[in-house]
Amino acid sequence: MKTHRGAAKRFRFTSGGKLLRRRGFKSHILEKKSPKRKRSFRKNVDVSPGDVGGARRLLGKR
Predict the structure, then answer these.
(1) Which CATH number fits domain 5-59: 4.10.410.60, 1.10.10.10, 1.20.120.660, 2.30.29.30?
(2) Contact 45, 20 (CB under 8 A)
(3) Domain definitions of the chain by residue range
(4) Bridge partners for 21 per DSSP
(5) For the chain, how big is the Rg over CA atoms in Å?
(6) List of long-range contacts for 31-39, beta carbons under 8 Å, 24+ apart
(7) Which of 1, 4, 48, 53 has the fewest CB atoms within 10 Å of its CB?
C-alpha cells in the first residue's frame, strides 16, 4: 500500500513509535492571542488515541 503523501507531511513518528502532529490555530488572527499561547503552538503534540489507527493506516505502518 502506498503512503498517503498528505498525511506523511503532517505526521511524524518518534523513536519510540508514537505519532506527533503540529498544533492548529497558528496561522492568522495572532494579535488577540497571548504570547504564552502562541509559544505553545510551536511544540508538537501526540496524536489523540482515537486518531492513531487511521493515521498509521495512511502512513503504511501498523
Answers:
(1) 4.10.410.60
(2) yes
(3) 5-59
(4) 11, 45
(5) 14
(6) none
(7) 1
d(CA 54, CA 62): 10
DSSP track, 1-62: ----HHHHTTEEE-TTS-EEE--SS-SS--TTS-HHHHHHTTS-EEPPHHHHHHHHHHHT--
For the question of whether the overall pTM of this predicted structure is more than 0.90, the answer is no
